[in-house]
Amino acid sequence: MSDFLSDEQLEGLDAYWRASNYLAVGQIYLKDNPLLHQPLTLAHIKPRLLGHWGTTPGLNLIYTHLNRLIKQYDLNMLFVAGPGHGGPAVVAQTYLEGTYTECYPSVERDINGLVRLFRQFSWPYGISSHVSAQIPGSIHEGGELGYSLAHAYGAAFDNPDLIVACVIGDGEAETGTLAASWHSNKFLNPARDGAVLPILHLNGYKIANPTVLARISEDELSALMYGYGYDPYFVEGDEPAQVHQALARTLDTMVLKIREIQREARQPRSSEAPERPLWPMLVLRTPKGWTGPKFVDGHRVEGTCRAHQVPLADFQQPIHLRQLEEWLHSYRPDELFDANGALLPDIAALAPTGHRRMSANPHGNGGALLRPLDLPRFADYAVKLEAPGSLRAEATRVLGTFLRDVMKNSLASNNFRLFGPDETASNRLDAVYEVSAKTWMAPLEADDNHLAADGRVMEILSEQVCEGWLEGYLLTGRHGLLSCYEAFIHIVDSMVNQHAKWLKTASEVPWRKPIASLNYLLTSHVWRQDHNGFSHQDPGFIDLVANKKSDVVRIYLPPDANCLLSVADHCLKSCNYINVIVAGKQPEWQWLDIDAAICHCQAGVGRWAWASQNDDDPDVVMACAGDVPTLETLAAVTLLREYVPDLRVRVVNVVDLMVLQPSYQHPHGMSDSAFDELFTVDKPVIFAFHGYPALIHRLLYKRTNHDNFHVRGFKEEGATTTPFDMAVINNLDRYQLALDVVERVPRLRDQLQTARSRYWSTMERHKLYLIEHGQDMPEVLNWQWTPANP
Amino acid sequence: MSDFLSDEQLEGLDAYWRASNYLAVGQIYLKDNPLLHQPLTLAHIKPRLLGHWGTTPGLNLIYTHLNRLIKQYDLNMLFVAGPGHGGPAVVAQTYLEGTYTECYPSVERDINGLVRLFRQFSWPYGISSHVSAQIPGSIHEGGELGYSLAHAYGAAFDNPDLIVACVIGDGEAETGTLAASWHSNKFLNPARDGAVLPILHLNGYKIANPTVLARISEDELSALMYGYGYDPYFVEGDEPAQVHQALARTLDTMVLKIREIQREARQPRSSEAPERPLWPMLVLRTPKGWTGPKFVDGHRVEGTCRAHQVPLADFQQPIHLRQLEEWLHSYRPDELFDANGALLPDIAALAPTGHRRMSANPHGNGGALLRPLDLPRFADYAVKLEAPGSLRAEATRVLGTFLRDVMKNSLASNNFRLFGPDETASNRLDAVYEVSAKTWMAPLEADDNHLAADGRVMEILSEQVCEGWLEGYLLTGRHGLLSCYEAFIHIVDSMVNQHAKWLKTASEVPWRKPIASLNYLLTSHVWRQDHNGFSHQDPGFIDLVANKKSDVVRIYLPPDANCLLSVADHCLKSCNYINVIVAGKQPEWQWLDIDAAICHCQAGVGRWAWASQNDDDPDVVMACAGDVPTLETLAAVTLLREYVPDLRVRVVNVVDLMVLQPSYQHPHGMSDSAFDELFTVDKPVIFAFHGYPALIHRLLYKRTNHDNFHVRGFKEEGATTTPFDMAVINNLDRYQLALDVVERVPRLRDQLQTARSRYWSTMERHKLYLIEHGQDMPEVLNWQWTPANP
After folding, report:
1. What is the pLDDT of residues B409-442, one digit of tens each?
2. Tens of pLDDT along A253-293?
3. Domain named Xylulose 5-phosphate/Fructose 6-phosphate phosphoketolase C-terminal: which ranges (chains A, B) (predicted)?
4. CB of A666 less than 8 A from some CB of B
5. How many CB atoms lie within 10 A of CB A603?
6. Which residue among A112, A348, A615, B476 is least enclosed by CB atoms within 10 Å?
């Protein structure tokens, strides 16, 4: 086969690759003498050697070749570096392109800049060894592995012009999320979305082991990729010139294939939907730590997992110093950089320019592209109610009508999608199907409903893939919401952690613009999974979120549909947060008309005068957060009205959980004086809470009256039972709450015995009825709020 | 092709299948009239219809055919039901086999038993709609999806005689864990381990959508399975007789293939290791809700996602009642059960007997097979130290030598494995390689180390697959430990939740025997991931665990290597817990000799007299939990000694976090009097904690002195920096702790200004040194504990 690249092209590519590798090694090792103008001495070497060489030359090779491709075809391309700790490579590339200097002017493109570039790497107050929010062009942190491909697809959705090149490390490829993400191609519409170009980089090893995919036969690997729905291309070698030729030729073919697929899908046609094509993907097999030291202390290093981190260390041994010097010289830096440390112009000219540079692609700083959603007036979707507790509604179904029109209004700008693991309809948001179906590229069958190639609801039965898609979509400047069964959102705990870290870091990076918030609707929640049982009952996700930085997280527990609307509207307008909304889907009593709901949600917490009773100087505060706790609290109020007619009770409802924290801990926190005013400084507070009680205690442990808070919530008692019994077995039921009041209010002490025996006989009746009838007692099923006599 | 089954065999299989389907429908719908001896009326139907029909007939079909296979070949087979909510099927099967009645004698094998069987299903205080710990023969909960295949492999390891039949739902197959678990075959040694027989059941739909794998071509699906390393067999149809024939023939072929693989691998051979074979797997495509109503209210149901839950509801419509009656009659119950409700003897005879019944396989109640580990004396591995703080050691490396011999002692019984996501060596447990390599079935290459087909260390770069394997291994009566980077253990949060739920439920099931605890070693922890940076820094897993039932979870923070040994020994001996041990791997000062360590760990908390000073009536208590907080606390003590020589300080170290809770909340909790004695009732307590401070506050909010606890810990400030700076940016450093003391002890008030300015100048020096040198100040690096003058 004749050569694909001319000698000149080959030399250029190789020079660029060498320059990037040189800069990567420099970052790992050097704190001075960046161009080896003096003989290398210990004084030039960093005291702590931290960094990861192994994946670096492969990433540099790919990046360099993609640059050629971008220039050749004027591509709009984004780069996602999946392999962990690929920092040295990506930083080197962004520096060579000039973007790094544009973002961080002190890292100039000269010898001083090189010193700064090298020194800051893995250095206190510098940058980390993996790609992070600090790196221009990146939407993906290379710390925790497994999310690159889902992020890449998220970025490609609704960006028809974009190609997202996604390098997947063969270590990362063993993770669950990555393994599931390959199927994302079933949800990518070539007519409407951009393309993802997956590059599986087999360098053969992870930290300490060979990788699974590097050690199966090419036959199996090829079948696996075909089975995932790709057309795999293979490039393999350890001789640079040969690999350059093969890689350039292959990438060229692949880009033409992508263009052909897109051309085909986008041509005017009759009514038929585009079909899922066989997208090209690349398997690139090159040695780990390629071009690094072949042997160190008699052990093979290049091509083994010994090349993973720092192949040469312990510079007390002079031979290591000489090896490092040889290694650096092997890239021939004097042929790459001028005496002042600038990249030679003919090499620099090989990079794309302006926004065609992957490090300067606007999609890599999605906030810069963000347009606010055109939200309909949420109040128009409100439940109309005459009085508190006068009707029942399904909160999420009401929200669904609002989301339908959010979707409708965004159809022109194509910047909103709804995500869910097979649960959008189960979570009762199915009104959205009136304006958009679920994305589905496979041929349709009879009885298929709400499926279409141009659907904008994204459903795959993987919380992780949904989360990864949504993150990628948000990071490239769009909007979205993920609805999920509350218990199973824990599947993405670690992904949420990492996104929170990204948001915190990104907010400290001056050139990063705010992106839309990551919005969760958690429904089918712990108190209404009575039929599905214990495995479906877990309210702990909000505990995880509450551990994150207060400027990143928000937690909302709207008590009814109108509050849910108000909260959802607020979340969809916000930026740079992780918003968690917990709301039930079952028919429940409604409390606030829309005006009251708006005021209540704006305050985040409020005294419900209509439910309180002579509460200027209350005997007790009954607080509640969450829809079911609110219901049980109000039912307890009606019981107490009957038992103790003269009780002075104040009802406080909390929507925004973070108001409970002091204002110096969270921006939403109430001032101590307002808190004391609302919750009193010395009265018992019976707090009915949606989640684990400990969360309330920790949020308010700095408050004056905290010793008087008595919190009821989920105490890990789960079962297949009835809704009311779920409250009973967790001591959150109305009878228990009423008893709690009697127990805690000193002036009711003489009624305690009566109240207790009344409680126990009620519980006995409850249990007997439950076992006999399999459902809740009529007085529970038929309970309805009635206002007290004036 | 001639028929595989004789008419009689076919009839028998079909009758058994009909019987199980009948019982499943009965469970979902009926509370009375179980054999339709009277015409069906509303009074016979449950008031709340809960359950999942869709997956049921497929599971029943597979189970019935596996029974035939077991009898034919006298197989030792375990059944793992992956599809969610397969409860009605598996319960029906266990009832038909008699096991259900053996476990729950009130559910007799007669008409009264049938009423109880039906009624209890999805009924308060009954059983759930998915397979749970209550179901005989099960090791896998069908609630949260995705873990069946990893559980199955875990069960098969070291059980050479066992075949684990694992049904994978096509919904479940979309999850990350499941997608990654297929590669488990690379870690299964046919000579030593049993077999897994994966059955991918394509019924085409999940809750509300078609499934991905049901809608790709057979060509792609077949390639996918081959790519995963399997030899796929396909059976498809919707005509029972044809499917029975094809399924029986195919399963027969597959079992013979498994036997052939095992025979080949197990024959005496020269020295060569067995190779990974191409294991057979089955793709079974049958309609969702097969044999159920074909149409309801004009909509197609069988073969669509409308069959997912309860295909017929709203029995106010008389036609639905008639349809249900016809549906039940379609199984011809009078040909299956006698007038008293017993299964006819010739049908019953088709099931295996005794322990060959999958519901009575001892591996399904692993605790019954559990043998305690033969643990070496852990004290023999202790670090010898003359005095506290006299030397440094790497705690996990010391533990590694103990684990090496745990492994060694278990080689004969083959009942211990070590699991880790590519981190065993990085976590410095590599001494185990002296006695056992990592399991690796692929051909070895030059420079491959510690890899062997008979290795007992399990490494795949998926925390989820490791977790699933270990759970399956434990649930079938063996022992193990999973080591993981602390931050990334969040990847398995939801799996841990589900295992905790399993343990809680199982402990309430009288016939379930205790299984070995699920042991985690979390290392490479938040305070020593300074070089890897923020993405690797998260101590929140213990918060998640602390939310679980107190009789299930234990959290240990050993301050040094000897304490780690003691704690690890304790955990390896324990049953039915989730034990989380957090311990660093870096060289750190050692505090307790082994005798002191044993006493300290047994108590879980202790006053360290050697570090305290005139502490009978202390000015302040300095408490610490975790290795780094302990180091910083002791360093603060030496600083304070210098600043305030007459300070009376008591040092308390906490190993077992649960001692902080009141004894009525956790069995390890200290009594209030002991707590008050140790922590005082009125003195300031400066508590240096490994994790998020809120966890300490919530554990001790019931304690007398809780308002005086001032907790320092991780406050989500992460960076690529130095170890000491990590403490500084989170205010956990020695200088801050010392300042905290000065601030909190009333009699030191007049020294506060001096102390503060001293603190600020130290911090300035710290920061300058850090930026200049990239490492910590000499006084930090060289700090060593010195006892106070007597």
Report:
1. 999 999 999 999 999 999 999 999 999 999 999 9
2. 999 999 999 999 998 875 677 889 999 999 999 999 999 99
3. 585-785
4. no
5. 15
6. A112
> What was the ipTM of the complex prediction?
0.97
Q: What is the pLDDT of residues B687-719, one digit of tens each?
A: 999 999 999 999 998 899 999 999 999 999 999
Helices in A354-492 by DSSP H: which ranges? 395-409, 463-475
The angle formed by the CA atoms of residues B146, B148 and B149, to the nearest 5 degrees, is 100
Note which residues in 507-536 of chain B have CB less than 8 A from chain A. 531-536
Residue ranges in chain A modelled with pLDDT below 70: 1, 270-271, 790
The H-or-E segment that residue B580 falls in is strand B578-582
Mean per-residue pLDDT, B613-619: 94
- Mind listing the pLDDT tens digit for each residue in A304-316? 989 999 999 999 9
CB–CB of A124 and B725 under 8 A?
A: yes
- For residue A737, what are the CA distances in angstroms to A689, A691, A756? 11, 16, 12
Contact check, Cβ <8 Å, B143/A547: no
**Chain B hits for A127, Cβ within 8 Å:** 720
What pLDDT does residue A271 have?
64
- Please answer yes or no on whether B212 and A125 come within 8 Å at the CB atom: no
How far apart are the CA of A208 and the nearest CA of chain B, in angstroms? Answer: 6
CB within 8 Å of B302: residues ≥ 6 apart: B287, B288, B289, B290, B291, B292, B293, B294, B311
Residues 364 through 393 of chain A touching chain B, CB cutoff 8 Å: none
Compute φ and ψ for A618, nearest 5 degrees. -75, 155
**Domains of chain A, earliest start first:** 7-265+280-362 (3.40.50.970), 379-589 (3.40.50.970), 606-781 (3.40.50.920)
CA angle A578/B492/B538 to nearest 5° reads 55
- Could you read off the pLDDT of A584-603 as tens digits, one per residue? 999 999 999 999 999 999 99
Cβ contacts below 8 Å, chain A against chain B, sum to 361
Contacts 24+ apart (CB under 8 A), B765-773: B766/B724, B766/B725, B766/B728, B770/A124, B770/A125, B770/B721, B770/B722, B770/B725, B771/A124, B771/A125, B773/A47
* Alpha-carbon span B270 to A646, nearest angstrom: 91
Which residues are paired to A371 by β-bridges? Answer: none
For residues B741 and A675, what is the distance between their CA atoms, to the nearest angstrom? 29
Task: State whether A718 and B501 contact (CB < 8 Å).
Answer: yes
Q: Quote the CA–CA distance of A122 and B457 in Å, as a whole number.
A: 32
| Structure confidence at residue B432 (pLDDT) | 98
* Whole-number pLDDT of residue A273: 75
Strand pairing class (B295-296; B620-625): unpaired
Global confidence as pTM: 0.98
The residue written with tokens 């650096």 in the block is A328
What pLDDT sits at residue B108?
A: 97
CA distance A629 to A643: 20
CA distance B139 to B511: 14
The mean per-residue pLDDT over the stretch B259-282 comes to 88
Contact between A763 and A733 (Cβ < 8 Å): no
Rounded CA-CA distance B59/B140 in Å is 14
Average pLDDT over residues B245-253: 98
Residue B564's identity, in one-letter code, is L
Question: Cα separations (Å) of B620 from A731, B615, B680?
Answer: 38, 9, 9
Residue of A nearest to B50 (CA): A531
Nearest 5 degrees, angle CA B41-CA B50-CA A734? 110
A532-557 burial, b at 16+ Cβ within 10 Å, e below that, comes to bbbbbbbbbbbbbbbbbbbebbbbbb
Interface of A with B in 485-504 (CB under 8 A): 487-488, 490-491, 493-494, 497-498, 501, 504
What does pLDDT average to over chain B? Answer: 96
**Could you identify the residue written with the tokens 């308010």?**
A700
Class of residue B498 by CB neighbours under 10 A (exposed 0-12, middle 13-18, buried 19+): buried
